[in-house]
## 1
Amino acid sequence: MFLAIKELKHSKFRYLMMSIIIILIAWLVFILSGLGNGLSTLSAATIKNLHANYVVYEKSAGATFNKSIISSDVIDEVRKNKNVKHAAGFGSSVASISKEKTNDNNQKTDVALLGINAGSFIEPTVIDGKQLSTSKRFGVLANKSLKDAGYKIGDELLVSNSKMKLTIIGFVENETFNHLPALFTNMNTWRDYQYAAPGSDNGVNKPVQAITLDAPKLNPGKLDKEIKGIETVTKSTAVKGMPGYKEESGTILMMLAFLIVISAFIIAVFFYVITIQKTPQFGVMKAIGASNRFLSNSIVAQVFLLSLVGITAGIGLTYLTALALPQNMPFDLDTKLVVSYAVALLIISLLSSIISVRQITKIDPLTALGRVE
C-alpha cells in the first residue's frame, strides 16, 4: 500500500486522468441503473405494491392480465384453501379521461383503469381524500401524478368511447400500471367499462382478470390441482408478465453488462501499459530484493484506490444528477442496486489488474536492466 500511495502522489496527473475515466464510467452505470429501475417501476409499480404473495390467472392466459378472464365464483373456491388468508379480484383496462367532452387529444389523459373491491386487502392507502366505497360506485382513487397534472378531488372525469363519468374521491401515490397512472375503481364499474360490448365477457359470471392471494404458506401447484382451469404464480412472475417488462429490463441489463466489461478492459489496458513502461524500475526493485508479491500488491492497491475513489465520486454525481432531472422522468435509484453495481465494478476492476500482475512476475531483473544480450 505504501508503494502504491507514493506512486499515486508522484504521478498525480496520470492517475487523475485514469480516475476521471473511472468516475465517468461509474456515473454512466449508476445513471443507467436508475433509469432501468425507474422504467420497471413505472411499468409494474401497482403489482409490486400489492400485499399479495400469489396471483391466480386463467390457465391458458400465460400469466398475463389481458389474456385472462375468470369468474368471481373462483374467489370463493380459493378461499376454501386453509393457507389462503385473503383473496381479491383484480382487473385492468386502458382508458382515456378528460374533464370535459373534447375531440382534442391533448386534453385527454391516458390512464390504467384498475378494478378492485372496495375495502379489499389490495386497495392502496390514500394520501389525500377518502378510500373507495360501494356507496360511491363511480368514485375513483387517482395516482398523485394526475394531481400534479391539474386534477383534484371532486373532479368529474369523462371516459372516452364511453358514457361513463367517474369522480375523483382520493389520491394515492406510486401507483402506475403499464407505464400509465393508475385509476382505482370499484370492480362493478370496471366491468361496465371492460365488458361493455355484448358477449365480450364470454358468458363468464362476474368476470375478473386475476385473483390476488395473501397466502405466504400456499402450495400453488396443489391449488391448481384443486381448482380446474387456473394457474397460480408468484407475484414476481406476475410482474415479469407485464407487457414489455422483460424486454425493458433485459435491454438495460445488457447495456450495463457491456459497460462494466468495457470499464474492466480500459482499466486493464491502462495498468498494463504503465507496467510495460515501468519494466526497468521493476527490474531494479527486483534486483535489490523486492518480491513479485510486493510489486503485485502495489499494482492491486493502486487499482483498488483509484476504483474506490472513482466509484464513490460516480455515486455522488449520480445523486446530484437525480436532483436535476425532471419529476416526470422515470428515474429511481435503489440503494440496494447502487451498492450491488458498486461492488461489481470494484471486483471487476480488481480482476482487471491480473494482466499487469502476471506481467510483473515475468520480469527478469537482468533483462530489464539491459545487461544480458
## 2
Amino acid sequence: MTTESTATRAAGGARVGVQRFGTFLSGMIMPNIAAFIAWGLITALFIPTGWTPNETLATLVGPMITFLLPLLIANMGGRMIYDTRGGVVATIATMGVIVGTDIPMFLGAMIVGPLSAWIMKQVDKLWAGKIKAGFEMLVDNFSAGILGAILAVGAFFGIAPLVTGLSSALEAVVDWLVNLGLLPLLSIFVEPGKVLFLNNAINHGVFTPVGTAQATETGKSLLFLVEANPGPGLGLLLAFMFFGVGAARTSAPGAVIIQFLGGIHEIYFPYVLMKPLLVLSVIGGGMTGVLTNVIFQSGLIAPASPGSIFAVLAMTEKGSYLGVILSVILAAAVSFAIAAVILLASRKRDLAAGGAGDLGAAVAATEANKGKSSSVLGNLGGASATATQTKIQNVVFACDAGMGSSAMGASVLRNKVKKAGIDGVTVTNKAIANLDGSEDLVITHQDLTDRAKQKTPGAVHVSVDNFMNSPKYDEVVDLLNQQASE
C-alpha cells in the first residue's frame, strides 16, 4: 500500500536520528510558543522599562517565567511519552527542579518531564493486569501521586543542582564567545543545520532555553535571532529572483513572501540544496546578522516563532529596534551578494544545460547526496493501482512541527481539490510525531519522508521538494478524481 523507497537506510541515518531527537526537543517547545509570546508581550509592556510600565501587572512576569513556562514544557514532554498520565507526573516532578533553583528551569523541565513520564510508564507495567477489579482507580491515583512526590524530591536535590550547573556552563560559553567576538561563528553550524531540517531542534532545543534565561537577566537575548533571522533566506531568494534560471527564478518571488512575511524558512532550503555552494551565502548572511546584533547589543525579549519579520519586530526589545532591523537588512544584503556571485558564475552553464539549476535538479542532487533514489509517488500510476483498493479520504501534510510548511502545502492542495470539485476528501496538516496511522495519504518534504513512513507505514507516501509549488499535487488531484469516478 505504501509507495516504497528503493533506498538503503544507512545513508542519512545519523541525520534522521538527530532530526528525531531534535523533533522531540522542539515538540516540547513548539506547542507552547503562544505562552512564550504572551510572556514576552506582558514583559515588553508592563516592566519598568517597558512600553507602558505598570507595577501591578508586571508581577505577572516572574511567576510566568518561573512556573508557567517550565511546567507547560514538562507537561508536554510527559504527554509525548505517556499521554495525560505522563503529563501529570511530569508536572509534579518538575516542581522539584523549579523550586530547587533560582533560575528559570527550562532545561530542567525538558529533562525531568519526559524522564518522569517514562518512569511512570515502567512502574505501571509492573502491575499491569494484576489489579483486582474495582481497585484500578485507587492504585492508579496513589501510584502516580506517590511516584510524583518521590520524583519531585529527587529532582529538587539531584537534578536541580546539575541543571543549574549546565545552564551556567552554557551561559558561560555564550559569554566567552561574545567576549572574543566569536559569536557570529555559530552561523557556520546553524545555517547548514537548518537546511538539513534541524532548524527546530537548533532553535527550540538549544537557543530558546538558553536565550530565555538570558532574557530574564538582561531583558533581551540575541540568541533568539541566530536561527530565526529572516535576512539570510531573504537575500538568497532575492538573488534567485534576479539571477536564477527556470522554475527556481519564477517561484522565488512567492517564496520570498512565504519566507520573509510568513516566517516559513523551509521554503528556501531546496534552493540551497540545488546548489550546495549557496550555503556560503546564508552562512555569510547569518554571521552578518549576529555580528550586527553583537555590535548594537540588540536582541529579542522572547522567541520569534515563526521567523517572520512581523514576529521578529513584535518580540524586539524596546531599545533594540535599530540593531535588529539592521541585522535583518545587512544579513539579507550579504546573503544576496554572495548568492548573486555564485549564480552568475554558473548561469551560462545552467542555461546551456537546459534545466540544470532548476528546482527539479534539487531532487536529483538530494537523492544523490543521500545515496538513494526514491520512487515514492513519482509514479502515481502505481499508487493509483493501490488506491483502487484503498479509497483515499484523509490526506495529511506532515512536517517537523506541523505548523509551518505543512500548513502551507495543505492550503495549496485544499484549494486544488476544491477547484476540482472533489468531495469527501479532507486535507489537513500535522507534525510527523503526531501521525497515528489513520492517514490514507501522507505528503512530506523529501528529507522527512523516511520518518513519516516509520510513523504510518500503511499510508501512501508522497515526497515533494517544494511545498508551495509541486507538480505532485496535480497528480494527487488526478488520483482523487480517478477514485471519485469509479
## 3
Amino acid sequence: MTNLTPHFSLNNFPSTLCAMIALTIAWITLPFFIGFIGYMLPGMATYLALGGAIASTGYALRLFTQLPLTLSLLDNFGVTLLLDPLGGYFILTNALVTLAVILYCWRTGKTAFFYTQLIILHGSVNAAFAAADFISLYVALEVISVAAFLLITYPRSDRSIWVGLRYLFISNVAMLFYLVGTALVYKATHSFAFSGLGQATPEAVALIGLGLLVKGGIFVSGLWLPLTHSEAETPVSAMLSGVVVKAGVLPLVRCALLVEEINPLIRGFAVGAALLGVIYAIFEQDTKRMLAFSTVSQLGFVLAAPEVAGFYALTHGLVKSALFLTVGTLSSRNLKELQSQSIPTPLWIVLVITSFSISGFPLLSGFGAKVLTMKSLLPWQVVGMNVAALGTAIAFAKFIFLPHKKESLNLRPGFWAAVVLLTGGLIVANVAYYDAYTLENIAKPLVTIALGWVAYWLIVRRTEVKLPRLLEQFDHLIGVMSLMLILLFWMAFA
C-alpha cells in the first residue's frame, strides 16, 4: 500500500498538492524513461537528453517557490523523498551542469550510448539529492557508480578502463561499509530515515560516515578523486567534479542538520578537506589535477556550514564545470608550458571570470557564497577556512596571470553555449544574496585575493614543489579508507 505524506500547510489546495506529487514522481522517473527511449531511438538520444535536463531545470526552480514536500512510500521499508530549497540548489546544479555538458558535446560525434548514460547519471544524481532515507540513497549511489563508470570508460582505452575500474572498486567498497551501517540504523530504530542516525549505535555512524565521505571525496577519503577526475574525458570530468561528488555531500549536510551530535564531526572533516585540497592545488602543475584537488577543497567549504551549503554547492558546480570545459580546450595541461606561451584571449577571459568567482570576487556568485559560508562558521573553524580561502586565491592566480593574445579559435560547436550558460549562471545567482554587499564584506575577500596574488608572485611562481602521490595509489587508498574508519570509530565513541 502506498502512503503519501506530503508536508504542506493546511492553507494549500489539495489540487495543488496532488499536482506537485504527480510532478515530482514524473520528474524523478523521466531521466530513466528517456534513457530507455534513447536506446530504442538512438537518433533522438541527444534531443531527449537535452529535454530531460531542461525539465529538471524547471522543476528545480519550482522548489524555491513552494513549501518543502516529503513523500513517504511503502512505510518504514520504502522510499522517502524530501524536496526543499536546500535540495533545490543541488538539483539546479545538476540540471545546469548536465545541460552545459550536452551543449558542449553537441555534434561532436558522441554516440547515443554516451547521451543515454549521461541522462541516467543525471537522473540517479537527482534521486540521491531527493532521497531522505539510507536505503533509497544506497540504491541511487550504486546507480551513480555504474553510470559514472560507463562514462569514464567511454573512450575504451586501456587507461580509461583502468581508471574506471579503480573508481568502481573504491566506490563499491565504501558502499559496503555504508550498507552495514544502514542495517545497524534499521536494527536500532526500525526505520531507514536519516533522522534515525541520532539513535543508532556509534558503529552505524562510523560506517555510514565512511561511505559518504568516500563518495563525497572529503578529506583523505577523497584522494581517489584527482586521478579519476583528471583522466576522464573533459565533459565527464565536468560532470564528476561539478555534480556527482555532491551526491555524497548532501546526505552529510542533511545528517549534520538533523543530528546535533555529528554536526561538529562533519564540520571538522570540512576544514581538513578545505586545507588538504588547497595545499595540493597550489603546488600542482597539471591543470586538470589542480582543478580536481580544488574540488576536494571546495567540498570542504560546502560542508563547513551545513545550514548554507546549497548556495555554495550551486556556485562551485557552475564554476568547476566551466573550468574543466575550458582547460580541456587548451593546448596543454601543463601550467609551466602554458606560462611560456600565450593562450587565446577569449579562453583567458573565461578562466579569469571563473577564477574570480571561486576566489570570492564581488559581482559573481562566489562572493555571496563565500561571505555566507564564512559568516556561518563556528569560532574554531574560522582560522582554517580563512587560510583555505587564501590558498584558493593563490591556486587560481595561476590561471589569472597566464599570458594571452588574440588569435582565431577552432572550438567545438557547443563550447560557447555551454560556457555562457555556466558563467551566466554565476552572474544571475549573484543577486540571490545581495545583502552580502557591505563595505566590510567586500573589503575582506579583496584583501584575501590581493594577498594570494602577492604570495603567488613572490613564492609559488618561483618554487617547484612536487607533493607525494603515494596515498593516491590504489592499494594505499584502501589503507587510507581503513585508517579513516578507525578515526571515525574513535570519534563516534568519544
